Amino acid sequence: MKTIAVIVLLLCCAFGQDKAAESAAEAACGPRDVEFEVQIDASAHPTPVPDIGKAVIYVVQESSLFTRFGIDGKWVGALKGPRAYLSASIEPGEHHLCAMGRQGVYKHVSLHGLKAEAGMTYYFIVFTVEGFGVSNSDYSLRPADADEGKYLVAGAKLITSHPK
Asked: What is the C-alpha separation between 161 and 74, in angstroms, rounded?
C-alpha cells in the first residue's frame, strides 16, 4: 500500500513539474488571451533590410493553422493560412522565438532560440506534418537558410495583424 502511495505522489510531482516546465518554455510566447485581427495584403510585398544596428526576421507559414508568433514573451503578429509571411526588426542579441498554432481544441507550440547579429536577416518556416489526427501532428518552427527563405518569401503573401 505504501508503494502505491509513493508512486501516486511521484506521478503527481512529475505532472506538476511538466506543467511548470511547459509554462517556463512558453515564456517566449505572448499572453494567451491576446487575439489578433489578420489581413492578407496581396498588393504589397515589402522585403525590408535591417535598420542600422538591428536585424530582420522573416517568418513564412506553410501550415494552414492560425499561428501567433512571439519574440521574448511578446506577440509580434499572427499568420493565417499557408504561404503567408510577416517580418519584424529585432535588436542584436539572444532571443527566444515562439510559434503557437491552434486547430480546434489542439494547441501546437514550437520554440527556437536565436542569437541575432546587427545587419543580418533571418528566415524561419512554420509548418505542420500531419500525423494520425491533428493531435499527433508535428508542428515546427525551423530556421531556413537565406536562399530558401528568400524563395519562400517571394511566393508568399504579406500578412498584417493587429491585436483585437
From this structure: 14
Query: What are 59's three cell numbers?
Result: 517568418
C-alpha cell at 55: 536585424
pTM, to two decimals: 0.80
Q: List, in sequence order, every residue forming a beta bridge with 101; answer none if it has no partner.
A: 67, 108
For the beta carbon of residue 48, count every other beta carbon within 10 angstroms. Answer: 11
How many residues belong to the chain? 164
Grid cell for residue 163 = 491585436
Please give the grid coordinates belonging to residue 2: 505504501
Asked if the structure places residue 149 within a domain, the reply is yes
Asked if 159 and 39 touch (Cβ cutoff 8 Å), the reply is yes
CATH of residue 50:
2.60.40.2890
3-class DSSP assignment, residue 29: coil
Question: For the purposes of burial, counting CB atoms within 10 Å of the CB of 68, is it exposed (0-12), middle (13-18) or buried (19 or more)?
Answer: buried
Instruction: Quickly list H helices, the chain.
Output: 2-25, 146-154
State how many domains the chain has. Answer: 1
Nearest to 83 by CA among 40, 121, 122, 25: 40
pLDDT digits (tens, 9 = 90+) for 42-65: 787 888 889 999 999 999 998 888
